[in-house]
Amino acid sequence: MAATPKELVPETESIADVYASDESSGVSPEVQARWNGLISGFTKLYGHRPDFVSRSPGRVNIIGEHIDYSLYDVLPTAVSVDVLIAVKVVPSDGEPFVKISNVNPEKFPTREFSVPRTTDIEIDPKKHEWVNYFKSGIRGALKFLRERYPDPSFAPASIEVLLDGNVPPGGGISSSAAFVCSSALAVLKANNHNVSKQDLLDLAVVSERAVGVYSGGMDQAASIFSARGYLLYTQFFPNFAVQHVPIPKAEHEITFLVAQSFVTSNKADTAPRRYNLRVAECTLAAVVLAKLNDVTLPKDNSSLGYSLRNFHNEFMRKEGRLGDPLEYQVDSVIQAAMEQLTQEEGYTREEIAKLLEITVPELEAQFLSSFPVQAERFLLRQRALHCFKEARRVLDFKACLSKTNTLDEHHILYLGQLLNESQESCRTLYECSCPEVDDICAIARRAGTWGSRLTGAGWGGCTVHMLPQTKVDAVIKALKEEYYYKKFPDISDEKMAHAMVISKPSNGSFMITGA
Ligand code: NG1
Ligand code: MG
Asked: What SS3 class is residue 85?
């Protein structure tokens, strides 16, 4: 099932459209209670009901790790936890303002601030404040409106806001994307704009990059475009496109379990040695491979302008093979990386400059000046091989899901193997795993998962496991005993309750007007 990116974020009066499970058309008592609490909390706080509630969920990436910014296809889906934002537009003659509270005010204190009419709202990234994510949503939304409808008399709406988010922060299921997408959606609606999914995606990706991480668009795409019961096959090249892929029936129902490692790696702080360095390494691998194969790369829309997918395309064009099945094309670029990027020990700046026939200052100006990176050597071979092989696994995973309506044991073991290979590649070639995540995957596999891997940026964070419904209890028990209680002997019941969740593929962004 293909979705058209131009379609509007759906609007509904009923939360059942957002949350109803496949088994029933109603919502669970917990969901209803949370919703009622948000609306009554808003009414108590501000003295009237909200006009609408915007909603965006977290996501789990099933396969395709660290390849979105190289513009390769990925296969995430939304999870059921989300960020709900209740809003009322209020009249104001003076400076436009935002009053914002959280249903958990002890942890997330109430704030009030004004919104400049013509300039961007200021965000201090050094102050780790919960409202920063809302501000980055405002900034993206207002910038979009000013560019789309230039009108010097435009005044942003003043709003009262109450927020309820249950996506665990820093937990690898992208609370940040859920927060930013929901915030931008709320501000656009408050200013009378019904936004398309594509426009919301574009502005949310740019808004999140404002915190200094040169990420791809996977998280925001999954948060906005997902549909209940489907995985979201997401393509970034040559243009953004999504396809909803159903999970076929199997003898034992396929379940995805998400387990936190509780090891946190602050992405913004570690970016020069971790996330952004990988973005730089993949870009350098693309331009070096292009040079070695005598092909010219046109600029693409990846964050540094040259991606491995772009090299792939130009290489295939030169060979006259753009009509070949994508799988075969990917095999050829794997081959090229194996044969041509021979230095296992990595490449220094001098060596890369020499290959590109430019000077070191030119190299730095062209590829290493958008953001700081800390590295003596760039592991072009390993990073490119991870990317190409992971891209191949995504294609294989999707092909296997699409082949039949029912998966037999053989297919399921194959899917699990692809997930395990992805983990191994993240661990060895991409070096984005960590001992705790490796541990969790090993314990879970022993207890009966078909496949286990890290999900999200890694270096800690979250893991995802594919397992039969019948093994869920055994895997949860094993992880509790062999990981959580061992590593965190004093773990609270509340923390334990958030450590592992069964994640059902859920709906993406929604605008709910029936409050
Ligand atoms: P996390 O850190 O899990 O939100 C990040 C990137 C994604 C993608 C994955 C790795 C952001 C907002 N997201 O996810 O674009 O590159 O890592 O596959 O930085
Ligand atoms: Mg994130």
From this structure: strand
Length of the chain equals 515
For 17-26, 247-256, 324-333, 454-463, which range has the lowest pLDDT when averaged over its residues?
17-26
- For residue 174, the CA-to-ligand 2 centroid distance in Å is 4
DSSP label at residue 471? G
Residue 296 is encoded by which pair of tokens?
């010219």
92 CA from centroid of ligand 2 (Å): 34
* CA-213 nearest atom, ligand 1: 19
CA distances from 15 to 59, 117, 165 (A): 19, 34, 16
The residue whose CA is least distant from atom 16 of ligand 1 is: 66
Write out pLDDT tens, residues 264-306.
888 778 999 999 999 999 999 999 999 999 999 999 999 999 9
- 219 is a catalytic site residue: yes
Mean pLDDT of the residues in the chain: 94
Pocket around ligand 1 at a 6 A CB cut-off: 61, 65-66, 68-69, 172, 174, 176-177, 208, 213, 215-216, 218-219, 267, 456-457
Q: CA–CA separation, 279 vs 214, rounded Å?
A: 7
> Distance from the CA of 376 to the center of ligand 2, in angstroms?
27
Distance CA 290, CA 503 (A): 41
Q: How far apart are CA 423 and CA 135, in angstroms?
A: 35
For ligand 1, mutation pick of 83, 174, 214, 419 (most atoms within 8 Å of CB): 174
pLDDT value at residue 4: 63
408 CA distance to ligand 2 middle (Å): 35
Pairwise CA distance, residues 53 & 14, whole Å: 11
| Angle between helix 308-318 and helix 275-292 axes, rounded to 10 deg | 10
Spot the catalytic one: 73, 219, 300, 438: 219
Residue type, 95: E
| Cα separation values, 169 from 34, 105, 211, 247, Å | 19, 16, 16, 28
Which ligand 1 atom minimizes the distance to the CA of 64? 18
Integer angstrom CA distances of residue 172 from 45, 86, 110, 186, 325 = 32, 25, 26, 24, 33
Distance of CA 398 to CAs 230, 339, 402, 410, 443, Å? Answer: 12, 28, 6, 15, 26
Strand segments, DSSP code E, in 51-157 are: 52-63, 75-90, 97-102, 111-114
Query: What percent of the chain lies above the pLDDT cut of 90?
Result: 84
Give the C-alpha distances (Å, rounded to integers) separating 152 from 118, 119, 146, 203, 416.
Answer: 8, 12, 9, 21, 56
Q: What is the ipTM of this complex?
A: 0.97
Report pLDDT for 66.
98
Backbone angles phi, psi at 302, to 5 degrees: -75, 170
